[in-house]
Amino acid sequence: MRLVDRRIGFLFGLFLLSLLAIVARGAWLGTVKAGSLRHRALSQQIENLTLPAKRGTILDRNGTDLAVSEDSATIYADPLLIHNPAAVASRLSPLIGVPQTRLLRALADRSKGFVYLRRKIDITKGQAVEKLKIEGVGMLVEPRRRYPQGPLASQVLGSVGTDNYGLSGLEQKFDGRLHGTDGKERVVKDALGRPVSIVVTKRGEPGRDLKLTIDAAIQERVEAVLAGVGETYRPKGATALVMDPRSGEILALANWPRVDANDIGGAPAYARQNRAVGASYEPGSTFKAFTVSGALSEGLITPNTPFGLPPTIQVADRVIKDSHPRPAETLSVAQILAQSSNVGAVKIGLRLGARSFDKWVRGFGFGKPTGVDLPGESPGIVLKPDQYSGSSLGNMPIGQGIAVTPIQMAAAYSAIANGGVMVRPHVVEGDPAPAHRVVPARTASQVSHMLEGVLGPGGTAPEASVPGYVLAGKTGTAQKPDPRGGYSKFRFVASFVGFAPARHPRLLVAVMVDEPQGEIYGGVVAAPAFQRIVSFALPYLRIPPK
Fold first, then answer.
1. In 133-190, which ranges are continuous DSSP H helix?
2. First and final CA of the chain: distance in angstroms?
3. pTM, entire model
4. Number of CB atoms found within 10 A of residue 40's CB
5. pLDDT digit string, tens, across residues 99-112
6. CA 20 to 30 Å from 89, out of 144, 317, 334, 433?
7. DSSP element (H, E) containing 155
8. How far apart are CA 107 and CA 135, in angstroms?
9. Is pLDDT above 90 for 346?
């Protein structure tokens, strides 16, 4: 009996020891788990968040919204709190538009305590996610940029990145004004990631608005005209701008192809470029007005000075001819400009000489930026006289061997239109626009009067005339340089620059079409686009016929 009792006592003792071991192990595991939870709770206890400021609105001259900020939803998650990543990914994918496989990778990555699932979606979609009440998934309200007019002036306006900073165009150039000051807040959460305290540590300040000189109605018409040019001539690209030559205010600046400002990243790089300021090209015959202006200002010619013109002229190793065959004849300076004679313009350039020619070219602003308040402006290319070859004065006076931008051409022609005074072009209302004299008032008046002949009988652009108005302008048809040397026989730039009314101009329009197909001449391709633009703008701005 004693033996049995001893065995029972021994077994009972083993049972007690096992029980104590189990209890001890459980306590240890509990301690580890509690410690893990405490560590996890501490690691997520405080979050410092940036509250992006609301960007200022960009408006046209009449108060039409071109770029605005609106509330959007940003969906985020804490993978450490997601118990079933696959199920959560399945529920979220159709709501936020992210592939389920991508969501699953993000939600299953337990090395992170915070991940963005989708930035800046419609606020209604964010609210739908909140209604699911999924532990570990939340929503932040952030401002996002929206362009109510779609593609209107998209290359001018530019774009904004996900973090609310300007990336291109006016959004980039004036980011300091538009962005505002971001706020800060501290969020304290419990062990389950639920906010228990939110404290704003720095109050944000919204950005300031930016009002432009752009007129949305004129901008829309110019873009429509360029779309027609694109459809008819299938060019590589096209640019047009409308400016008040008296003040330098740009009323429209358009590029084709159009780009949706709300999806500017989806367009090819060449379409996103604002070619009016960033694209250099050889201007061709539109440049002849400046050759003539320089010679007039030097007193070397008058509008009636006759020049005997052979069919061709040789300068060093280069033979220059007019665009259409003609016999030897005598033309006045006014006729040379109206008929766009290459031989005549070269003769005027040779009379002017290299040093004087260079002085007037640079005086009109070529070879340096205009200072327009848009980013990415190219200075163009102008050789110095000591870099000239023997044939330079056989091509530069007719707009070859020199590279300009559309904005430079518009600014230079504004000096002719504005009595010899050039005002810096600008797109932001109230931006200081310093003015300076380029040529004497008499010279500007003489050239302006001669440019009226371009649109008259015998000129190169009768297609640009508008009934009831006297207009002035110049066509350009320029061969593009061939990468292998010389000039291409197949690639051209067609252009037209003009102003209205001719005697007291209030509008200046420049049109440039890069590599049109089928037709190549400025008088055929670009001049009708000018005509359609001014036919709308003149009555729209209530400019009476003169």
1. 154-157, 169-173, 175-178
2. 136
3. 0.84
4. 16
5. 999 999 999 988 87
6. 144
7. helix 154-157
8. 12
9. yes
